[in-house]
Specification:
This protein is of the alpha/beta class. 39% of the residues lie in helices and 13% in strands. The protein is built from 13 helices and eight strands. The chain has a five-stranded parallel β-sheet with strand order 2-3-4-1-5, sandwiched between helices. Strands 6-7-8 form a three-stranded parallel β-sheet. Helix 3 runs parallel beside helix 4 and helix 7 runs parallel beside helix 8.
Length: 353
Amino acid sequence: MSDDAQRTPAHLVNRTPTISGAEIVATLVPPPQFAEASFDSYRADPDHPSQGEAKELLQTFVNPPKAQQRGGFFSFGKKKAPAEPQPARITHQGVYLDGGFGVGKTHLLASAWHAAHGRKYFGTFIEYTSLVGALGYAQTVETLKGAQLICIDEFELDDPGDTMIMTRLIGELTATGTKFIATSNTPPNALGEGRFAAQDFMREIQAMSDRFVTIRIDGNDYRQRDLEGEAVVLTDEAYRFMLADGINSGDRVTDDSFDALIAHLATVHPATYSRLVSGVNIIGVREVTQLTDQTEALRLVAFIDRVYDAQIPIRSTGIPFTEVFGGGMLDGGYRKKYLRCMSRLNALTSGVM
């Protein structure tokens, strides 16, 4: 690479990543920030007992305690030792972690994945629906069949068709013994609330809910504990200095206008967003403006989720990124999704991740 190339920022809009079904399967593991997550490293907030309770329940769910053996013939007449108290156990085949953003749901989900034995998969809702799109439904079932555990992060409903596919997939795989753990900001019986009204769809939601036991996790958003106010914004001069400083330091820095980035996200599949930012150390976005189109806003949410997974800082100009969702979006059915994204944007622009 020439010196001139090294001193020029890259542009995300010039990247057009693709991904195959086999490649999606290979990526169904926890994101880098949770590569070492464990139940031991999960710090439950003593002010919110539900966090510790969720941790204990998940530990027994992925590795149930062995049943105590009865005494043999020669134990007849011997005084029985008092039975030790057994930890609470989950009899359902699925666990649904419900709670606000930033309370550690994904950490617990990744901890369960690491603690589980046998074949297992970890991915976001959109990654599993993308897998179905790439392989077809029947082949996806065959690929995942036999897994001991499947973890689904960010189970949110953007599309009733996707939800019905996932409900059917869960039904077929639980019938063969696979366990599921899912996270969401919305409890199962409220999925789709305020978005769709079709009776058939609501029946599908209820069917999925019946396979899961819901564990509520309370707490404060850990990403905001050391943050105040809005996402950090740079002046034009500070932004240019950031680009130059990052490049001179050997970082892989990108530079795109907000409008161009939003337009580009529509041209690549959301399943490839993680590849879109692969190898990038700092993401620069100029002239951030407010979005009023919900489709564009949801694409941005999916993109920021992958940026947050990769823990890539964002530097921007224009309005604060936390003000990007306009047109009454924060009062609609996707409110929790946008609020979670704002929480992550605050952390990514402030360097507290």
